[in-house]
Amino acid sequence: MTIVPAGRGLALRPAGPSLWTWLAVSIAVVLAVPIAAVVSSLAAPAGDVWLHLWRTQLLELVGQTLLLLAGVGAGTLVVGGGLAWLVVHHRFPGRGALEWALILPLAVPAYVIGFAFIGLFEYAGPLQVEMRRWLGPGARLPEIRSYAGVVVMMTLVFYPYVYLLARVAFREQGAASVETARMLGRSRAGAFMRVTVPLARPALVAGVALAMMEALADFGTVASFGYRTLTEAIYRVWYGMFDRIAATQLASVLLLFAAGLLLLERRSRGRARFTQGDRRRPVAEPVRLAGWRAAAATGICVGVLGLAFLLPVGQLAWWAITAIRARHVAPDFAALLWSTCALAGVTAAVASVLAVLLAYAGRLHGTATVRVAAQLVSMGYALPGAVIAVGVLLPLSWADHALVPSLERVLGRPLGLLLTGSAAGLVLAYVVRFLAVGLQTVDASLGKIPPSLDDAARVLGARAGSALRRVHLPLMRGGLLTAVALVFVETMKEMPATLLLRPFGLNTLAVEIWERTAESMWQEAAVPALTLVAVGLLPVVLLIRLTSRK
Amino acid sequence: MARRQTRRGGARILAVALGLAAPGLAATGESAEVMVYSARAHYGQEPAMEAFTKKTGIVVKSFGGDAGPLFERLKAEGDKTPADVLISVDAGNLWNAARAGLLGKVDSPEIQANVPAHLRDPESRWVGLTVRARTIMYNTKKVKPEELSTYEALGDPKWKGRLCLRSSTHIYNQSLLATMIKRYGEPKAETMVKGWVANNPTLIQGDTKILEAVAAGQCDVALTNTYYLGRILAKDAAFPVAAFWANQQTTGTHVNISGAGVTTHAKNRGEAIKLIEFLTSPEAQQMFADSNFEYPANPQAGVNSLIAGWGKFKQDDTNIAAAGEFQAAATKLADRAGYK
C-alpha cells in the first residue's frame, strides 16, 4: 500500500490539451445535452407555481429532502459498510454463502420492494392482522408510511452499492496495514477506526454518494410512502398542475443537490490517493467468532437479507402463483426478455466504454476541464428518469424536425421520425442516467493501480492508448465487469424513461409491469416482476463470482 | 346504424385483403389501421379494441405510458406524430392536451348521441369512454349508511381519526376538488378540505390499499373510486366495505372519466373517428363496463351485474372539463389547507 499525493507525476505528460482531453470533453458535451435541455427551462419565465411553492412548502421540501439524504446516507453507510466489514474480517457460520447472497437485493427494483414492504407491514397487512388477533385490537406497529419507514426501506434497497464497493476495498487492503497498527499498540477496534476505515474511505464515500443520488432521484418509493421530497414535488407540479416547465425548473434545483453531493464526495476523498502496492499478501487474518457473537453475526446478515430480498421476492412469488392459477400471465415472454436484455446489454457496453475513457483521461490529465467533464456526466444519476427522458426527447425531436424534411426531399419519400422514439434515443437516456454508476466503479478500480505502472509502460515506449489496453484494462478487469453488471441491472429495472422513449412495438419487462401496476394490479404484475428479478440475478451472480476470486 | 357499420366493415375487410394481395397498393393507399397513445393501462380496453378490429378490419395499435410524459411525446412529435387517438384516464389530462392544441375537433352526431354532454368537451375535442365515480366507502360493521351524507360532511368532528384519504397529489382527488371549486367556488371548497384535514385523516396511497385499511378497521370511512371495490368484491364477496353515493340530495356524486380524442395531426383521422364512435356505442360500452367494473359513459349500456346492486345514482353534472380548468387551483388549495 502506498499513499501518493494527487499532484503526482513523473514527466512524459504533454503540456497542451491532448487527444484524451478532447475525447473526455466531447463525451461530456454529448451527454450534457439532455441535462442542458432540462436546465434551459430556467430561461422560461417562472410561473406563479414558484410563488405558490415558496409560500406553502418549498423550505419544507428542501428540508425533507436533506433529511432523507442524511438518513439514507447514514443507513447505507452503517448497513453496507458494516456488513462488508463483518463478512471480510470475520468468520461465522454461513459466512461463505451470506457474503455473496447480500448482493442479491440489487436485482430487485425499488418499486417492488417498497410495495411488498407496505403490504406486509401496514395496518391491514398480515403481520398486524395477526398481532391484533393474538394481542388484542390495540396492538399495532409504528406507522410504516413515515420518515423512518422510508429511510429503512431505502437503506435496504441501496445498501448493496456501499457493500459491494466496501467489500472489495476491505479485501484489497492486505494484512500489512492492520498488522502494523496492531504492532504499534492499537486495539482491534482502534486499528479498524484508524486504519481500515480511512483506507476504505474512497470506496465507502463513493457507495454512499451513489445511494444518496438514487434516493434523490426516486419518485416511486417516496410517493407510495407519502413522503414529500423535491422529486415528488416535480411530479406534482408536472402531473397535477400541468406545468412541465416549472417541473423541469424544479429539477434544475435537484441538480444543485447532485452537484453538492459530488463535490462532497471529491472533498472527502481528500488530496491523497490510495493505491494498492502489495497484492500478494492476503487479507488480514479474520477473527473467528464463537458463541453468541457468531450467532449475532449470522443473525444480522440473515435479517438484512430476509428483509431486503427474501421477503419481497417471497411476496412476489406468492402473487405470481396466484396470478398463474388465475391465468393472468403476460403474453410473449420471450420477446419481452429479449428486448429487455438487448437494451440493457447495449447500454452497459456503451456506458462502460465511456466510463473507461473518461476515467483514463482523468488519470492522464487531472486538469480541471476533465474533472468537470466527469462531474457533469455524473449528474444525470440524481435526476428522475422521467425528467431525463424529457431532456432527451426535446433535442431529438428538434433535430428530427430540422433534418427530416430535407432528407425527405432528397429521398422523395416520407420518413416519419428518425430519432424521436428510436432505440438510440432510449439508450442515450439510460447512459445519461446511469453513467455515474459505471464511472464511480471504474474510477475506483483505476485509482488502485499504482501510477508507477503508467510510468513504466511509458518509459518502455507504450503510448497512452496502448498502456490502457495492455496494462490498465487487464488489471481493472474486475472493476470493469462490475461496472457492466451494475449498469445492466440498473437499466433493466428502469421504468419512466423506458415508457416515454421506447420505439413503438418495443416492450420490456418494466413496461409490462407498468401496464399492470398503473391500475394497481400488483398480483397480475408479479409474473413479469419476478422474471425481472430472475434475469437481474444473472449479472449479480456474475458480479459475485468476479469479486470473490482471490 | 348497425347495418351501416357492417357495410363499412365489409369495405375495410376488402381493403385489407387487397392490401395483403398487393403490398404496393397498401403502401400508397389508405392503410387500415389506427394508432392509439394510451395513458390508460390496457386492462379493460382489449376486448373492445378486438371487437372493433373484427367488425371493421381496422387494426388498432396501442402505445402506453403515463399521461404527463406521453403528452410531452405527442407534443414533441408535432405534425409527424404517428398517433391518431389519445386515450387517457382523467378528464384533466384530456383537457390539458386539448388546451395545448394536440386534439382536433370532431363533429360526430353519433358520438354526441352516445355520450351525455357533461362527459365530453364543450368544444368536441375529447369524449368520455367510461365513468369513474369517486364516492364514500364505509366499513359495514362499524358505520350505518344513515350516518353518511355528503363529501362536506366528512369534515364533521364525529369522523375524527376515522377517515382515510388518498394523498391530494393524486389526480383523482385533484379532479374531485377541481369540480368542487367549479361548483361551490374556492372558499367553500377550501372549508370542506380544511374540515377533512381537521379530522386528521390517515393518508394512504392507492385506492385498493385504502379499501383494505377500511376493511381492517384502520379507518371507518374513506373516499375511493368504486371500481376498486368491484375488483375486490369479485374475488371476495364477504369484503366488509360498501359504497355510499355521496351528495344525492344535493349536487350528485363526483364522476371522472377515462376518455379519448383524435389527435390534431392524425394520419388516419377517419379510422380514428370510427374507433371512438365504436368505443362509445352500447356494444363496446358493455365490454368496458364488464371488464373493469366502471360505469359506461353511454347510459344505454348496462352495468356489470356485480355492481348493479349498488343501484342507480345521481351524477354531478358539472361538465368534467372543470377537472382540467381548476386542477392547478385544486392543487394549490390542497397545499394551503395542509392536505398532503
Describe this structure in words.
The complex is a heterodimer of chains A (550) and B (340). Chain A has 550 residues and is mostly helical. Chain A folds into 2 domains: 17-45 and 330-550, MetI-like (MetI-like fold, Orthogonal Bundle); 47-327, MetI-like fold. In chain A, 74% of the residues lie in helices and 2% in strands. Chain A is built from 23 helices and 4 strands. Chain A has helices at residues 19-39, 48-56, 58-89, 95-101, 110-121, 126-135, 147-172, 175-183, 188-217, 220-224, 230-240, 244-269, 291-325, 333-364, 368-378, 385-411, 423-447, 451-459, 464-475, 477-493, 496-501, 509-517, 522-548; strands at 2-5, 90-91, 272-275, 287-288. In chain A, strands 1-3 form a two-stranded antiparallel sheet. In chain A, strands 2-4 form a two-stranded parallel sheet. In chain A, α1 (19-39) packs across α16 and α5 packs across α13. The longest helix of chain A has 35 residues, at 291-325. The two termini of chain A are 18 Å apart. Chain B is an alpha/beta fold and 340 residues long. Chain B has 2 domains: 2-131 and 256-303, Periplasmic binding protein-like II (D-Maltodextrin-Binding Protein, domain 2, 3-Layer(aba) Sandwich); 132-254 and 310-337, D-Maltodextrin-Binding Protein, domain 2. Helices cover 44% and strands 17% of the residues of chain B. Chain B is built from 15 helices and 11 strands. In chain B, strands 1, 2, 3, 4, 5, 6, 7, 8, 9, 10 and 11 form an 11-stranded mixed beta sheet that branches. The longest helix of chain B is centred in the first third of the chain and has 20 residues, at 2-21. Chain B is globular and about 60 Å long. Chain B starts with a helix and ends with a helix. The model of chain B is unreliable at 1-29 (pLDDT under 50).
